[in-house]
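Long-time lurker. I teach an intro course on protein structure, and each term I like to show students one example going from raw sequence to a predicted 3D structure in token notation. This year I'd like something fresh instead of my usual example. Would anyone be willing to generate the tokens for the chain below so I can use it in lecture? Attribution to the forum is fine with me.
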Amino acid sequence: MDARHGDLAAKVGGSGRHEGDSGRLGLGVSGLYLALYIHYGFFAFLPLWLKATGASPEEIGILLAIPLVLRLLTVAPFSAFVGRRGWVRNAIAYTSLASAAIVLLLLGEPDHAGRIVIVILFSIVWDQIPVLTDAYAVMAVRSRSLDFGRLRVWGSIAVVASNAAAGWAIGIAGIKMLPLMIAVLLIAPAMVAFLLPTDRKLSAVDDAAGGRWRDLIGDRGLILAMVAASLIMGSHGVLTSFGAIQWESQGISTTTIGLLQALAVAAEIGAFWFGAKLLGNRDPRLLIVAGAIAGALRWAIMAASPGLPLLVFGQLLNGITATGTILGIMLVIAQRVPTHLSATAQGMNAVLLGLVLAVATAGSGLLWSYGLAVAYLAMSVLALLGALCAWPRGAGFGKHDSTDMLSTSGAEG
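-- Reply from a regular --
Happy to contribute to a lecture. Here you go:
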């Protein structure tokens, strides 16, 4: 065999190994999302556990608000810290295990002060896991040309399974065993994370300097996209707080309400699976714009207290309003942000999203007092503001794109 044939064989063999690595990594990250979200349905029963162990309604409200506040204070600095050092994968594993250990302390049914301390500790540690998982997934997308939507969809599938399993499991074991169930399920993301490649194996630029949020502020397009995504997701505040109440007042049964909520999740799954493929090589900010426009339409429909057929249509729009926005901002980060800044960008995005969600959710009660139509139309305005922020301006993609441009599926372009 001559040298040229030898070179060709080496390239073909290398390509095959790369494709094999991509397949294994894609399977691993999908498994990580599945393992992470499989315990989410159990969180919905936490207020019942608190009530069963003697917590007052006022205390329950305070305990549930603690994670919202701590998320704003801890996520950005921690994600920047681990991202700068190439510890994202390890941090996912260790924060999952630490969260499992902390939540087990609730089995002792501590008093009021003990519950507050445990919830504070748990929130500080657990809040990092979803953000770091997204950061690792974006690194995988960049490294192996993976489709983010088809990785993330397994998180939505896990939520559906978790919601179905949680009530059944609690019915068998009793509400007092809820902390043990959550702890056992939190071991899963740690086990999957340990099987994944380290950060340094996903990128050749891990030793690059930086990792601070200040390194990203200069990318105006990135910041506007983050603001847009936060506004659109925040516009879900009224529906999240009062949607079920509104539907019940219209005479819709609780079974139908549950089916409507399941329909929204089903729309998410479909959008995650096909979203990036449908977008092709177009600017992913267009997904955020689509999410904003669909959101404005959805809230306008809800403002009219529609009948069941229009409600079904509105719930199907969730595939664009929520999934389009989430997928869009993740692809924007994958395109515009160097790998060593990925965790920092995810932390910034999480803080912005948490801030807007907190304000929108808190303000939804005040808006509702002015009437259903006013509340939803205000959410439509919020979504349209997101469209204005996300709309692509000019041909440039930002300061990092000339050297690190990717297609929406992660492939180098």
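Some talking points for your students: Confidence is low (pLDDT under 50) at residues 1-16, 205-209, 395-413. Residues 19 and 175 are 46 Å apart (CA to CA).
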